[in-house]
Amino acid sequence: MSTTARAGQLVKAPVDVYGIEGRYAHAIYSAATKNKKLDAVDKDMKKVEQLLEQDKKFAAFVLDPTLKKTQKKDAIESAMKKQGLTDLSVNALSAMAENGRLPKLPAILRSFQTLMGAHRGEVTCTVTTAKPLDKKTMEELSAALSGFLKKGQSLQLEAKVDAEILGGMVVTIGDKYVDMSTASKIKILPTLEDMNERCTNTTTKHTSIYNIGEMDFINSRTIADISEAIVDINVKLL
């Protein structure tokens, strides 16, 4: 499997994935789609991901950059055939070993799952808060954010905790990023104060403050709508 194939030879990806891992993931997705084995290959990749998590020896072998490529290629082919993987998946992993890319395997698997999620119409949304969210707040967020999905899409809501944001929340949904955290407001205060000192017109001062304070939201109407939809929930977390 060559990742240098021209884009025209690959099946169009449902979402863009980047870097070396993205190129390999896209190549696997394309080959599986062309051969009508996408579901089977998806199961294979999940099995490999599980092996990496549960088998420390296998993970150490895969991630070891000092082993010879030929040694890795032969071993990975044998091991994956014993696991019952499809020929397409075995060939993909063999190509990674031959090209010295097996240490990138965890990232490749993540990129592949990103493609599969998009293929299934799943939209991943990550909500980061300073403290864990309760069930009711999660349900409120899910209801508010689901309104931005297209027909046939489903929301995959993931909650993370990062005490450094201090309060409020940071929301990533699809390719949109909305930072409504206390930390971001504090960070921007010196810039606002500096601009206010330069302004002589009171109206201009307030406009400048509004524009800078909302700059994450005014670049796109969709982002502005998202922030408006969840602003009441965010206030509770400040």
What is Rg?
23 Å
**Given the structure, what is the number of helices?**
11
Number of domains: 2
Query: How many DSSP-defined strands?
Result: 4
**Contiguous uncertain segments of 5+ residues:** 202-221
Distance from N terminus to C terminus (CA atoms, Å) equals: 50 Å
Order of strands in the sheet with the most strands? 2-1-3-4
Structural class: alpha+beta
Shape: elongated
As a percent range, the share of helical residues equals 55-70%
**What would you call the quaternary organization?**
single chain
Largest sheet: 4 strands, mixed
Mean pLDDT value: 82
Q: Helix and strand string, N-terminal first? A: HHHHHHEHEEEHHHH
The fraction of residues assigned to DSSP E strands is: 5-15%
Please, could you describe this protein's structure?
The chain folds into two domains: 7-118, Peroxidase, domain 1 (Orthogonal Bundle); 122-237, no CATH class. The protein is 61% helix and 11% strand. The protein is built from eleven helices and four strands. It has helices at residues 19-34, 38-54, 56-63, 69-82, 87-98, 105-119, 135-146, 182-198, 202-213, 215-218, 221-237; strands spanning 122-129, 154-161, 169-173, 176-179. It has a four-stranded mixed sheet. Strand 1, helix 7 (135-146) and strand 2 (154-161) form a beta-alpha-beta unit. It is elongated. It starts with 18 loop residues before the first helix and ends with a helix. The model is unreliable at 202-221 (pLDDT under 50).
